[in-house]
Amino acid sequence: PPRSPLSSSSAASDVYKRQALIARWNEKATDLGTRLLALSCFDNNRFVNGRNAIEDDVMSFESLRLEITTEVIDLLHEYCFILRKLIERANCVSQAKKLYPHQGEESISINKDGPDERKVMLCQKDLWWILGRVIHSQSVVVLGGDTNLLRIYSDGKTRSYSDGYCYASVESDFDDGVQHILHIPSLVHVFSSSALASEIKEVVRENTI
Question: How does DSSP classify residue 64?
């Protein structure tokens, strides 16, 4: 039997609501991803030894290390939660399972030139899998950046200068005791530069014109 006008109107309303939710989740994911990227890549080395500083060493932000680390962890959790919701709303789980943040790079040395220098194995799982592990994480530890310079001054004072907070170790209740090492910028980039993100943006654009 032919649909009633009321039924057609209800269906159209449901489509509109779904698209509005996609737009809302996309806006949140974009905002969180931008903030997470900026903070995880904060380079304190840029402000050391006169570079972007008014004089040597006066602009070290190492005193804010704990606050920055905590904010990176909070943003990582929230970004992964919102991004997972966005992908679910857009019915794009299958595409997310084809995106690999660390594709082509299995291991990397972090905190080079610092006391915590070490080689780590990067998680080789897909984006969807990683989002689930972060959301259900028991522990998230920020490991540092690519380099961690330790300077020793003539008066015996030492100070460490980190060039980022972009590597994190995640332990999930899905994998008891197993650490998954993530490169946060790669996690943000693999989605933001994907065809999936472009498709979602097009849906949002079409319904905001």
Answer: G
Residues ≥6 apart with Cβ < 8 Å to 52? 46, 59
Q: Which residue in this structure is represented by tokens 């380099």?
A: 147
Cα–Cα dist 206/209, whole Å: 6
Amino acid identity at 198: S
- In this predicted model, which residue has the larger pLDDT, 58 or 24? 24
d(CA 181, CA 170): 6
Locate 143 and state its tokens: 């490991």
Distances (CA, A) of 69 to 3, 27, 61, 62, 166: 56, 24, 12, 11, 10
Name the helix (H) or strand (E) containing 201: helix 195-206
Q: How far is CA 112 from CA 147, 150, 163, 207, in A?
A: 4, 10, 10, 48
- The pTM is what? 0.86
Place of tokens 């530890």: 141
Contacts by 154-159 with C-beta closer than 8 Å and gap 24+? 159/57, 159/60, 159/62
